[in-house]
TrEMBL record:
Keyword annotations of the record: ATP-binding, Kinase, Nucleotide-binding, Serine/threonine-protein kinase, Transferase
Domain called AGC-kinase C-terminal: residue spans: 682-746
Positions of ATP binding: K453
The protein's enzyme class: transferase
Name assigned to this protein: non-specific serine/threonine protein kinase
InterPro entries: AGC-kinase_C, PDK1-typ_PH, Prot_kinase_dom, Protein_kinase_ATP_BS, Ser/Thr_kinase_AS, Ser_Thr_kinase_AGC
Segments forming domain Protein kinase: 1-278, 423-681
Domain of life: Eukaryota
Example GO molecular function: protein serine/threonine kinase activity
Amino acid sequence: MGDGAFSKVYSCQKKEDVQNGNSNQSPIYAIKIIDKNFMNLNKKQHHAYIEKEMLQYLKYDGIIKLHQTFQDKNSLYFLVELVQDCFSEFLKLYGNQKLTNQIIQFYTAEILSILEYVHSKGIVHRDIKPENLLITPEKHLKLIDFGTAVIYDQQKVPQKIVQSIENYRKDFVDKERKRKYSFVGTNAYLTPEMISDKPVGPGTDLWALAIIMYKMYTGTIPFKSNNQEELYQKIVEDQIQFPSSIPLLAQDLMKLFLEKDLNNRLVDYTKIKSHPYFAEINFNNLWQMVPPQPLQIYPEQIQQKTFIQDPISKIIYQEIVEKKSGILISYFTPRQLVLQIINDIPSIHYTNPKKNNKKTVIHITQGLKYELIKQDKFVIIDDKQKYIFKSQNAKKWIELIFETLNHDKKEESQESMQSIRNYEILEILGKGGFGKVLKVRRKKNNQLYAIKKMSKAKIIALKCITAVLNEKNLLLQLRHPFIVNMHSAFQDRENLYLVLDLVTGGDLRFHICKNKRFSEQEVKFFAACIIISLEYLHQQGIIHRDLKPENLVLDNKGYLRLTDLGIARIWRPENSSDGSGTPGYMAPEVLCRQNHGITIDFFALGVIVHECMLGKRPYVGKTKQEIRDQILSHQVQIKRMDLPVAWSLDAADFVNQLIQRKPNYRLGYNNPSDVKNHKWFTNFDWNSLIKKTYNPPYKPKPFLKCNNSIDSNDTPNDDNFVILRNLTLNEQFNEYCYNPEAGMIK
């Protein structure tokens, strides 16, 4: 159903019900599976513990119901009631133009009712936002994610719970007063007191409610900035300017919640509920009410809205308003059509605003007929009735439907094509900005690979098309034992797939977090592996430009291999001043957008060795600007007194020469081989390293993946049926595919 930084959420049934033949009648639950390893690495264990305590303590219609918790060696499990849709997706789907004042009043009242209950129990949630509110099929709200909640009034909480939390983490409860200090939450919904690290209280959650109200009325948030510090300054200092589209009563209520001083905010729920804004709300009957429904708007001109699939809500849907007739045509994507056919679920809706907005349900059956009208329309015929659907991709839709229905007949020919169907997905190795890395077995020869599965929608949204294509094009030219090599590349209508060497030892960042520091022998070996890979890249005229521990992975023997060439470049004068990379590992000339060459990779190598040696980078800051200012203000050098016990001065000299601020003073500037020939590597056996007969001093233990189970979004059957609707953007991926067996690039 969805995933987060440390967990995945699945829908499930109890095995005993299914085995007894009661699967149709047995309840369906949601199960949240939390990876212990990643929680421990990020020191977030207390979040899971606090959430369990809170959900066991809080019982209310507007709070998700916890049925059970348990654990095994690798994971924690939360079994909760199933609520599939997220309130944030509801807001995206309908937008502020379709949410009437009556609807916004209702959901404001529901959130207020939830907060009143939570606060009456002595708890502050501290992370109220649309993403932490689920919406039931009956369109009522449920609050989730109590991992950052705190006790603000011990007198209201059973002593057993207070003691339990205090025993787990003693700084959770402020023993003197009824408020809690700490800086957590989501940036857009943070309060001045949270940013200033001052006490929080019920007014903290009510501030967030006002931000949600603003978003429901306007479709956006009041405080915005791409710079985090500037955003915090706005929240602390700026007064919100309310647009005239927000009713005056709503503005008045929001102002009472948005006082900068926590002590001045209205937190008396009797007074809040008697505010004129809630004049039509019956709080005593709120959870039994039928919520008001969003209205459809029919503008004069054709409007088209597209909602890319969200892993939580599964909303994939388009609507078109025809200019002449004013008819609203709603339809689902081929993927949804296909799943409905396979699962025999009847739910395609055709809406005609001229007929009082009544929806006609088209029942999907195997005998359903599809007819193509020209190139931009198709007809679904059911029980002798015709329903016309318009789409520029109508022909492709029909072809996809028939392709799916006839899939079994085409199974034999699938292997000759580049497709995810050619691979058996074994487990998930990791997650990145665009998607997931999968461990797979090729069905044809049982060979194991890693597949980097990347969502086209995310690539486009993050404006990274060039980087993704660049990585594939560079890997096409490269093959080396110290690089993660590409075997093939292909795509379907939703994703790009990069087939790579399977390297299972985890990235260097994981091992740095785990070990903090390494021995001199281990670090020298790591550095040597990196030098070999950089030597090969530089000989090909390529600068990596993003060398960092996250882009270095260990194989099962302990050899480091270089990966991620997304922002790598073939060096040319015209592209030698681009300021890309990761702050902390970027050389000064890159930060200042000056011309640069291969020595920027040597600077990053020095930073990595410094980090493995001393447990920290030479220049540390929260922002690129802070790091830049540090570098420009002084030159970091490792002194004898800084060296760990038993480390040689040669190691310090190697790092000091690499992290020189001026590139012409940097080791490797005059001759790249100077790096390899530095005295620190005297008597180092480079030939054995290249042949991989060297005995690595550090061998990774079996790496614990973030989650090794496969969900419906990872299985091949679902991957080929969502059309990326902007064909102009989709065409930019035309050059992505590479099939060495067919001897072609397409």
